[in-house]
Design goal:
The structure is a homodimer of 235-residue chains. The first copy, chain A, is an alpha+beta fold and 235 residues long. The first copy, chain A, is built from eight helices and eleven strands. In chain A, helix 5 packs across helix 8 and helix 6 crosses helix 7. Chain A is globular.
Chain lengths: 235, 235
DNA sequence: CGTCCCTTTGATTTATGTCAAATTCGGTGG
DNA sequence: CCACCGAATTTGACATAAATCAAAGGGACG
């Protein structure tokens, strides 16, 4: 392991999610980093607000563990879950250069969040790989949005849920065979909101999957039994 | 009128869409601008490709007249119209800092496009109001995306089309009374794709609107007869 | 004037929303 | 640790909006 002088980056050096984090590209630098620049492992209980739609964007949030939902509220007060963020991902990258948050982020479970000040990020945009890392993820986020637009209403409930599950497997880098197991931190209602379906439909679709032998469900725990059939399902 | 030395910005000075254009904030400057920086009034016939998904983003495109559709294609080859852009708007602002285009832009009619080189934009980001103008529009674009996610599948075909029409009225700054008239440059099929509906449903919904006395339709020409009823429709 | 394509209209099917009831789950307090 | 309560989830029955299939009408263009 490389010796790091800065006490903050030293901790980053040992972080299990460092390969997903832009702090990684800072570790090699002699840059001075203070607690005002990076705050590590801030713990939030379930249903905490990380940031609020419309509030000034002072920080960038990295999900070290746990998960969050991004909720957008329109003028009529209708709420739409825009996306979920899992461990190793950033919250709301897409509109990074904007002055305010475009949606509200709420934890789905007890989560550890690392907080990067925007001032720090912008000041160090020149550092090799630092901003590039963030921008690359931002592109993924845009693509994701477009996929969501594509997915909504042109796919059946069956397909939508399948796409949703495979997306989790992909994003969480789970085994892409029949041994993928994971927990869905969000409620069925949240899932339904995100997928543009009624909660009852989500429930029925899960049951349908189980009957077909694609997955097993035990409350929030999902185990993939036949991922190839699941992939066929969504095409 | 202010005297401008630069021959390119001088032309911008007389542009009917200058108040929507970031070039406006350049006019007061003594900055040197060449044809490599800004190309004005490039004419494209119907169904021309302005830029391609995945291609390097070398330029930013401003729709001076006409309109375009932004099409996203996924790995399976499914195409989704992400948005339409009308006169006075930019194409694909949301992902401005990305290195490649996130969707393909195609003209819906004969259009005049002004082309800003990205190199020029980034080099002059410090000029007062230049980048701010672009960023503000970018935020609008994100909000629009979120609204689209919200709109898809939770609203009926009736509402979706209503929202679509009111959006055009708003974006084109048409009279917000019962005298709004405009042309829909896109085909019903394009509309259907954008709205996530079957073309037949779009057609039926138009007929329904006409029967209700909300609008009159003559092929691509739309006239709003009762905008308040239309607004009630979408709530 | 005829052909082709886009659009409209009609008839039918189907997926999913809605309403309602049953069941399970999770948390709280005795 | 167990019992109870409220909330979330599942299941069922039914209604309905919109997709699909099919055919006819209308414009644009050669």
């Amino acid at each position: 392991m490389q010796f790091v002088f800065n006490p903050i980056l030293q901790r980053c050096c040992e972080c299990g999610k460092r390969s997903y984090c832009p702090a990684n590209s800072l570790i090699k630098t002699r840059i001075a980093v203070s607690k005002r620049d990076i705050l590590q492992n801030v713990s939030f209980p379930t249903d905490s607000y990380i940031c609020h739609q419309g509030a000034p964007r002072k920080n960038l949030f990295f999900v070290k563990s746990g998960s969050i939902k991004n909720v957008y509220t329109n003028e009529l007060g209708d709420q739409q879950i825009i996306d979920f963020r899992y461990a190793g991902e950033f919250i709301e990258l897409m509109s990074l250069e904007h002055s305010t948050h475009s949606s509200t982020a709420v934890t789905l479970e007890k989560s550890l969040i690392c907080v990067f000040s925007m001032r720090f990020i912008m000041a160090n945009r020149r550092i090799n790989g630092f901003l590039e890392n963030i921008q690359k993820r931002s592109e993924t986020e845009i693509r994701h949005h477009h996929e969501a637009l594509l997915s909504n209403n042109r796919h059946s409930a069956n397909k939508r849920l399948g796409i949703f599950l495979l997306d989790i497997i992909e994003r969480q880098s789970l085994n892409y065979d029949n041994s993928a197991m994971f927990q869905l931190a969000m409620s069925r209602t949240d899932m339904a909101n995100y997928l543009g379906l009624a909660p009852e439909t989500v429930s029925r679709t899960f049951s349908h999957y189980v009957k077909q032998g694609l997955i097993t469900v035990r409350k929030k725990n999902i185990a993939i039994k036949d991922i190839n059939k699941l992939i066929e399902f969504i095409v």
